[in-house]
Amino acid sequence: MSHLIAPSILSADFAHLASAIEMLNKSAADRIHVDIMDGVFVPNISFGFPILKAIKKLASKPLDVHLMIIQPERYITQFKDAGADTLIVHIEACPHLHNTLQAIKQEGMRAGIAINPHTAIHALDAIIEEIEQLLIMSVNPGFGGQELIAHTYRKIELARQLIDKNKAKAIIGIDGGVDLNNATKLIATGADLLVSGSSIFKSTNPARTIAQLKAL
């Protein structure tokens, strides 16, 4: 499988959101990554259902919705209705993770788990077969523009071993600090999907940067 690119819309200029999504629709991007932050689970607040619905109306690419919120199980149906194609919850925020994943699937969405930099891969031993996507946070979540944490490469290797051992179908996504300088190594180490925000939207030609990431 060729690696997937999911630009993070959080890094776009929200004064020109429609133009940013039109660019992504025409680009080599495979998905659009949407970060939802509540100011509690992470020290930042992004946006909620009205903005997500607006993005969905404009987007022709699937939406990967990444919930950096507490008690995400409260809003599963609302996120489906707002346009999420994949719903990604943090293992650190879900005391009843299996139930949450089942509820996501029952709504017809792909189920994903995100893990923070300090969370060990073996925490996924009992649940890896239940998900379509594992999102490894390669920075501490909450803010864009951070540098990728070097231990991420080892976590990718361990995640690949766990997936292969269990014959699981989950793809491995990397979120945080992804750019043209490290993308090749991330893919070679085992990443299937790259989430990139600042390095795309702060570049002089975002569509070309997406194409370059896709072509690696």
From TrEMBL:
Q: Does the keyword Zinc apply?
A: yes
The record places the active site at 35, 175
Give the record's GO CC terms. cytoplasm
Catalyzed reaction equations: D-ribulose 5-phosphate = D-xylulose 5-phosphate
Q: Which residues cross the membrane?
A: none
| CDD domains cross-referenced by the UniProt entry | RPE
Instruction: Give the matching InterPro entries.
Output: Aldolase_TIM, Ribul_P_3_epim, Ribul_P_3_epim-like, RibuloseP-bd_barrel
> Could you give a GO molecular-function term held by this entry?
metal ion binding
Write out the residues that bind substrate: 8, 66, 142-145, 175-177, 197-198
Which coenzymes or cofactors are required? Answer: Co(2+); Zn(2+); a divalent metal cation; Fe(2+)
Q: Which UniProt keywords apply?
A: Carbohydrate metabolism, Cobalt, Isomerase, Manganese, Metal-binding, Zinc
Tell me the Pfam families matching this sequence: Ribul_P_3_epim (PF00834)
Details of cofactor binding? Binds 1 divalent metal cation per subunit.
The pathway is:
Carbohydrate degradation
- Function description: Catalyzes the reversible epimerization of D-ribulose 5-phosphate to D-xylulose 5-phosphate.
**Family in the record:** Belongs to the ribulose-phosphate 3-epimerase family.
Q: What is the protein name given in its UniProt record?
A: Ribulose-phosphate 3-epimerase
What species is this protein from?
Gelidibacter salicanalis
